[in-house]
Design goal:
Shape: globular
Radius of gyration: 22 Å
Number of strands: 12
Order of helices and strands: HHEHEHEHEEHEEHEHEEEHEHHHHH
Oligomer: single chain
Largest sheet: 5 strands, parallel
Distance between the termini: 41 Å
Number of helices: 14
Bound molecules: L-rhamnitol, zinc ion
Structural class: alpha/beta
C-alpha cells in the first residue's frame, strides 16, 4: 500500500501535483450529509406519505424509524467515509420531547437540540431546510405561491421560524448554516396564469427573508426545479425565477443548483462557472438523475467528476456549499449514503489531482490538440492509489473493505428493525 502511494506521489509530482498538499487540504472540505437518505424523506413530524413532487422508490428493509436509529445510521456512514462532514437536516425531522407536538409554523431551536448535540459531538456544522411538503397545509399542491392567503401565511411563518433555527444552529456550532428554500409548488396541467403564482412566490420568499438574520451566519438559498411528479406542466420556482430572485437579493440569499433539476442534456458543471461570475457564493445539491430527477445514489461518474472539477478549477472551494441530495429506498440505505459521499469525495480528490493551471495555459495558448492529449493523460494517472491512501489516513474502509463493513452493520443493526 505504502509503496504504491509513494510511487503515485512521484508520478503526480512529475506533472506538478503535490499529493501531500492535496491530502491535507481535501480532508477539511465540508460536505453536507443529508439526513433524509436514512428514512426515505419521512421525518418525525407526521405519519402521512411523502408528497410535493418528490418520490422515493423501493422498500429495502432496515430503514431508520426513530431519531436514535437515524443518528446511529449517520454515525455509521460518517465512519465509513473520509473527509469533513456537515449535517443536513430538514424541518420535518424536528424531535418533540414527551410528545409535545407543534406545527411547522411554531418550530423552535429546542426541537432540534438532539441534532445540535449530534453535530457538536463530531465538531460539525449544520445545514437546515424548511419542509414545504408532506403536510396537510400544502393546498392543491401549493405553499408559498398559493392564492389562499392563510396558506401562504402559514408557510411564510414556517420559513421565518426556520431562519431563527438556522441562526441558532450557526451560533451553536460556529459554522454558517445554509438554509435552503425549495417548494414543489406547481401544476399538473397547463396553467392559465404562470406569472401570478410566481409573483406570490417572490413576495412570500421576500417575507421570509424579512426575518432578521446575520448573512454571515445564515445562508438562505433558493433552489430551482424543472418539474416534479404530479406537477409536470409547470413549476413555480423554475430556473429563471430562482436565479433571478437570487441575483436580485444577492445580499440576502444564494442560488442553489440541484443537478437533478434541469433538462437531461443540461449540465450543472457548465452552470457552476457561469454563476461564479456573478455570485460570491453558490450552493449545490449533488444527486444523480436518470432520465428525470430520480435521485439515484451518486456515483463517481462523468458529470459528478466534471462538477467537482469546475469547483476546483474555478478556485471556488470556499465559495461553493456542497450538499448531497438523493434518496434510494431500493438498496441498503447505508450503502447508498456511503457510496454517494465517497463518490463525491473521489470526484473532489480527482479534481485536485489534476494539473489545472497547465491545462488552462494550453487552452489560452490555443494548443488544443495538446490539451486533449494531456486531459486524456490525466485519466490514467494512479488516482486509485492516492484515494486508498486518503481512506487509510482517515481511518475509513478501502473500497474493497466496504462490502463487509456494510454487511456486518446490516446483520447486527438493520436486520433487527422489524
Ligand atoms: C426536491 C429537491 C429538494 C429535496 C430535499 C429533500 O426535488 O431536490 O432539495 O430533495 O429538500
Ligand atoms: Zn435538491
Amino acid at each position: 500500500m505504502c509503496n504504491r502511494y509513494e510511487s503515485a506521489k512521484e508520478i503526480y509530482a512529475k506533472v506538478g501535483i503535490d499529493t501531500e498538499a492535496v491530502l491535507s487540504k481535501i480532508k477539511n472540505l465540508a460536505v453536507s450529509l443529508h439526513c433524509w437518505q436514512g428514512d426515505d424523506v419521512q421525518g418525525f413530524d407526521h405519519d402521512g406519505p411523502l408528497t410535493g413532487g418528490i418520490q422515493t422508490t423501493g422498500n429495502y428493509p432496515g430503514k431508520a424509524r426513530t431519531p436514535e436509529e437515524l443518528i446511529a445510521d449517520m454515525e455509521k456512514v460518517m465512519a465509513l467515509c473520509p473527509g469533513k462532514k456537515k449535517l443536513n437536516v430538514h424541518a420535518c425531522y424536528a424531535i418533540f420531547e414527551d410528545g409535545k407536538f407543534v406545527d411547522r409554523d411554531k418550530l423552535e431551536p429546542k426541537h432540534f437540540q438532539k441534532w445540535i448535540d449530534f453535530a457538536k459531538k463530531y465538531n460539525m456544522g449544520i445545514d437546515f431546510n424548511p419542509t414545504f411538503f408532506s403536510h396537510p397545509k400544502v393546498k392543491d399542491g401549493l405553499t408559498l405561491s398559493s392564492p389562499d392567503e392563510a396558506t401562504r401565511k402559514f408557510w411564510i411563518e414556517h420559513g421565518k421560524a426556520c431562519i431563527r433555527i438556522s441562526e441558532h444552529m450557526a451560533k451553536e456550532t460556529g459554522v454558517p448554516c445554509v438554509m435552503n428554500i425549495w417548494t414543489g409548488d406547481g401544476y399538473k396541467d397547463i396553467p392559465a396564469d404562470r406569472m401570478g403564482p410566481r409573483m406570490r412566490y417572490k413576495q412570500s420568499i421576500e417575507a421570509i427573508l424579512s426575518e432578521p438574520y446575520d448573512f454571515n451566519l445564515v445562508k438562505p438559498c433558493v433552489e430551482s426545479k424543472v418539474f416534479g411528479i404530479g406537477v409536470e406542466a409547470y413549476t413555480v420556482g423554475s430556473a429563471e425565477f430562482s436565479l433571478s430572485f437570487a441575483a436580485e437579493h444577492k445580499d440576502k440569499c444564494l442560488p442553489l443548483m440541484d443537478n437533478g433539476h434541469y433538462h437531461p442534456t443540461e449540465v450543472v458543471s457548465d452552470k457552476i462557472p457561469a454563476l461564479l461570475c456573478f455570485f460570491d457564493e453558490i450552493a449545490l445539491h449533488i444527486t444523480r438523475p436518470i432520465r428525470w430527477d430520480s435521485d439515484h445514489t451518486v456515483l463517481f461518474d462523468d458529470e459528478t467528476k466534471e462538477m467537482a472539477k469546475e469547483i476546483v478549477r474555478c478556485d471556488a472551494l470556499d465559495r461553493v456549499y456542497m450538499a448531497l441530495d438523493y434518496f434510494d429506498a431500493s438498496i441498503n440505505r447505508i450503502a447508498s449514503w456511503s457510496i454517494g459521499l465517497r463518490s463525491w469525495q473521489k470526484a473532489l480528490l480527482l479534481a485536485m489531482l489534476t494539473p489545472n493551471a497547465e491545462l488552462k495555459a494550453l487552452q489560452d495558448n490555443g494548443q488544443l490538440w495538446e490539451l486533449i492529449l494531456k486531459q486524456e493523460g490525466v485519466k490514467s494517472l494512479p488516482f486509485g492509489d492516492v484515494w486508498n491512501e486518503y481512506c487509510a489516513r482517515e481511518g475509513v474502509a478501502l473500497d474493497c473493505q466496504l462490502v463487509d463493513e456494510i454487511k456486518a452493520y446490516e446483520k447486527d443493526v438493520l436486520a433487527k428493525r422489524v
